[in-house]
């Protein structure tokens, strides 16, 4: 053989593959395997649709709860008034003392805004809202005090911080009584924390179920192609090359499941919008469901793809490595 191929070997030129060609071949190989994995899903439509449906519906529930919590936070954006402190000023406080108090507390870093309501303004408002205007006209003097409404910053609107601010305001010499419904504020924050924790627990359980479902599906695909994997290893294929199509299968499961979850969330919000409009009309408020924007779509799609790849990775690394030719 050395005589036959001696001249050919001497005259042969070893071709060098450039970095650009390696880079291009890398992406072409990945693209072909990605399309091949998508074709495998298309050839087994029934099983693929069932897996995608389970994945999509599992992501739909926590995504819908997330959107609803986000809308609830928008609705409760006006609830910061629950931490609003009412300061009833002393009767003998002069207007100059009140002005000095307003200027002084306005500089406090804990306070976001203040609203001064004089006794005359409060009496006029009471006449308009109570319907006892004629009876109030017989009073000898205005029984209502001057009031300052203090709104803390978002950082100091928690129950404990608002209580400390109330104690600090009570020490001012012009203040007679300070009032804050701390118990209602604590109940409000506790309720929001419970809802957020519930959404987090449900989401984690469903995400774990998605990872296990995809991992089991990929495991069955690997076992069904055991003979093919043995032949590929006999001709020198690496584990990474064999694992890649199954990883892309998990990617497509996650991608298509995320799209299905997004469509399901849109339909659920559209179906619930009519009932929400009825409730908002009863309270004479206008409210539109929000949260199903493009950023939420990207978040859902990215999370779904991550779960698909995680389930594939856990199954592929174990089962492909176990298949070895004897």
From TrEMBL:
InterPro entries (alphabetical): ABC3_permease_C, FtsX, FtsX_ECD, FtsX_proteobact-type
Keywords: Cell cycle, Cell division, Cell inner membrane, Cell membrane, Membrane, Transmembrane, Transmembrane helix
ABC3 transporter permease C-terminal domain sequence ranges: 201-318
Membrane topology recorded in Swiss-Prot or TrEMBL: Multi-pass membrane protein
Protein's cellular compartments: Cell inner membrane
A GO cellular component entry from the record: plasma membrane
Similarity comment text for this entry: Belongs to the ABC-4 integral membrane protein family. FtsX subfamily.
Function in brief: Part of the ABC transporter FtsEX involved in cellular division.
Protein name in UniProt: Cell division protein FtsX
């Amino acid at each position: 053989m050395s005589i036959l191929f001696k001249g050919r070997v001497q005259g042969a030129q070893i071709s060098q593959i450039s970095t650009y060609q390696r880079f291009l071949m890398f992406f072409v190989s990945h693209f072909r395997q990605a399309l091949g994995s998508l074709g495998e899903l298309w050839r087994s439509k029934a099983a693929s649709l069932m897996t995608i449906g389970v994945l999509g519906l599992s992501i739909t529930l926590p995504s819908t709860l997330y959107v609803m919590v986000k809308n609830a936070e928008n609705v409760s954006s006006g609830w910061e008034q629950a931490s609003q402190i009412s300061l009833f000023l002393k009767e003998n406080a002069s207007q100059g003392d009140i002005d000095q108090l307003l200027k002084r507390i306005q500089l406090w870093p804990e306070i976001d805004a203040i609203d001064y309501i004089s006794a005359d303004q409060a009496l006029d408002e009471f006449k308009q809202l109570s319907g006892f205007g004629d009876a109030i006209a017989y009073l000898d003097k205005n029984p209502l005090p001057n009031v300052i409404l203090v709104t803390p910053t978002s950082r100091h609107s928690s129950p404990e911080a608002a209580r400390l601010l109330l104690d600090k305001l009570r020490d001012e010499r012009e203040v007679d009584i300070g009032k804050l419904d701390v118990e209602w504020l604590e109940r409000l924050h506790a309720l929001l924390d419970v809802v957020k924790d519930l959404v987090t627990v449900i989401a984690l359980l469903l995400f774990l179920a998605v990872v296990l479902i995809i991992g089991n599906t990929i495991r069955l695909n690997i076992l069904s192609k055991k003979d093919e994997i043995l032949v590929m290893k006999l001709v020198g294929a690496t584990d990474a090359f064999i694992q890649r199509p199954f990883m892309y299968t998990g990617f497509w499961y996650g991608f298509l499941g995320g799209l299905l979850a997004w469509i399901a969330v849109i339909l659920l919000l559209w179906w619930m919008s009519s009932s929400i409009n009825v409730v908002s009309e009863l309270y004479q408020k206008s409210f539109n469901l929000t949260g199903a924007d493009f950023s939420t779509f990207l978040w859902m799609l990215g999370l779904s793809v991550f779960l698909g790849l995680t389930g594939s990775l856990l199954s592929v690394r174990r089962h492909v490595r176990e298949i070895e030719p004897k």
